[in-house]
Amino acid sequence: MDYVKAFIIGGLICALVQILLDKTKMLPGRVMVLLVCTGAVLSAVGVYQPFAEFAGAGANVPLLGFGNLLWKGMKEAIDAEGFLGLFKGGFTACALGVSAALIFGYLASLIFKSKMRK
Q1: CB of 63 within 8 A of CB of 48?
Q2: CB 20 within 8 A of CB 26
Q3: Using CA atoms, how far apart are residues 89 and 30, in angstroms rounded to an integer?
Q4: Whole-angstrom Cα distance, residue 26 to residue 111?
Q5: Which of 42, 57, 64, 109 is the most buried (most CB within 10 A)?
Q6: Binning pLDDT at 50, 70 and 90, where does residue 85 land?
Q7: pLDDT in tens, 34-84
């Protein structure tokens, strides 16, 4: 049942984002930034964590979850190191995921051949 709940919640988030892209003139990059910032703000207010516990991977996998991860990393680093944690916490929290994306993207580029469009 957790898989179904994650699928439905994640699908609803993606559908709302698709509607936002279709009905406004916002570019995809701006929508991605909006999602990350929304996740961070919802985390700061204390709303995102109960939502993430309910939705599971449906809330943690989209970009809202990335904003939540950045906020949690910054909060922990600020509590531990003070003001300097503000600059270090987000990078420390998301380093594993970003590194994995870069490494696997590079490996995929070695395995598969891209086709240039003319």
Answers
A1: no
A2: yes
A3: 23
A4: 34
A5: 64
A6: confident
A7: 999 999 999 999 999 899 889 888 888 888 888 988 999 999 999 998 888
- Nearest residue to 32 (alpha-carbon basis) of 13, 51, 53: 13
DSSP 112: S
Q: Please, where are the H alpha helices in the chain? A: 2-23, 28-45, 48-55, 57-60, 63-81, 85-111
pLDDT for residue 91: 86
pTM score: 0.78
Tally the C-alpha atoms within 13 A of residue 5's C-alpha that lie toward its C-beta. Answer: 11
Assigned token pair, 82:
């003070």
Q: What's the rounded Cα separation, in Å, for the pair 86 and 77? A: 7
DSSP summary character for residue 62: S
At 51, the amino acid letter reads: F
In the chain, domain spans: 2-111
Tokens 């049942």 sit at which residue? 1
